[in-house]
Specification:
Elements: E1 5-8, H1 12-24, E2 29-32, H2 38-44, E3 51-54, E4 63-65, E5 71-74, H3 79-84, H4 86-91, H5 93-100, H6 105-110, H7 113-118, H8 143-146, H9 169-174, E6 178-184, E7 187-192, E8 215-221, E9 230-235, E10 246-255, E11 258-267, E12 274-275, H10 277-283, H11 290-300, H12 312-332
Parallel strand pairs: 1-3, 2-3
Antiparallel strand pairs: 4-5, 5-8, 6-7, 6-8, 9-10, 10-11, 11-12
Helix pairs in contact: 10-11, 11-12
The structure holds flavin-adenine dinucleotide (FAD) and iron/sulfur cluster.
Iron/sulfur cluster (SF4) binds next to α8.
Amino acid sequence: MRPFTYERATSVADALRRTAGASREGERTAYLAGGTNLIDHLRLGIRETDRLIDVSHLDLTEVTELEEGGLRIGALARNADVAAHPLVRRTFPVVSAAMLAGASGQLRNMATMGGNLLQRTRCVYFQDLSTPCNKRDPGSGCSAIEGLGTYNALIGTSDSCVAVHPSDLCVALAALDVTVVVEGPLGERRIDFADLHRLPGDRPERDTTLERSELITAIEIAGPGFARRSRYRKLRERASYAFATVSVAAALEVRDGQVADVRIGLGGVSHKPHRALRAEEVLRGGPATHEAYAAAIAVEMEQARPGPDNGYKVTQLRRAVPAVLSALTEETA
Ligand SMILES: Cc1cc2nc3c(=O)[nH]c(=O)nc-3n(C[C@H](O)[C@H](O)[C@H](O)COP(=O)(O)OP(=O)(O)OC[C@H]3O[C@@H](n4cnc5c(N)ncnc54)[C@H](O)[C@@H]3O)c2cc1C
Ligand code: SF4
């Protein structure tokens, strides 16, 4: 591990000032929040930095109600605190459920909201410095395309990268109306959640549209609308402490046996959290039945491009999505 300095920021402005100062001197910086992803990467040599700027003590931990409805969650709120927060549990149960499905109690006590959004892929080759990986070492090649393909993405892949985004929380956020609030050298910027993460294209080393110095300060979730009736289901190889093979976040409103509105987020399928817009479109205004839900996810999966090892994900989604929507339908009956 290369040596670096540790600095504790005292405010958002102080964190930005330290980052700007370092860039002027040609130094690399990294914001440290819970450290559950970043410290591993520094130890493994996946990432290097000259200055580690600790933002974990900044006063960005509150969960508050927005005037127009919905919630504002500080970027440094711990995953465990947000998952257990009464406002979150009542207003957006899918957010709480998704977080509780991730990692372990100890990790959730450390991990923060902003850090969860920016955690990096769990592609085994990304973490193995002895193998080529375009995301870790641009231009070196992608070991996953010809190698172990079990966890590869189905949608939005490129010749450069087939990795998936690992976060559970982000799948729930993909199904809701979310704005990510960031602070940078030019002031505040508000990013639609759908525009935060990128597809790999020919720049897989860039996971998001954030500029290097930008600091996430809050996540705003509009609503609640029908999101009070929402669920998260995670499929994985063992019952706990495992990343999803696929996952489903859904919110549903049924009126007179018809789908009045629906939101579906899918995990484990793409380089970014995937919103199943095609399935939603098919469902709105149609019958709220298991058969209709199965037909809708079949339409969504028409864009999937599975390889020899990951076709099972399509099967899992074709079962899980109708099951989750049917369970929500029963709740509303
Ligand atoms: C064994 C293990 C199992 C796990 N299982 C799961 C799982 O099942 N599901 C799941 O979703 N996650 C899982 N995780 C991932 C875990 O949720 C993330 O490591 C965690 O959410 C990252 O948050 P953090 O605050 O620790 O981020 P850090 O490690 O501190 O930072 C991560 C990245 O985000 C940047 N960053 C952090 N905060 C900000 C900010 N406010 N603004 C700008 N940049 C910022 C950092 O510079 C760094 O690049 C697991 C992790 C481990 C170690
Ligand atoms: S899929 Fe992406 S992260 Fe995995 S080896 Fe290929 S380039 Fe690297």
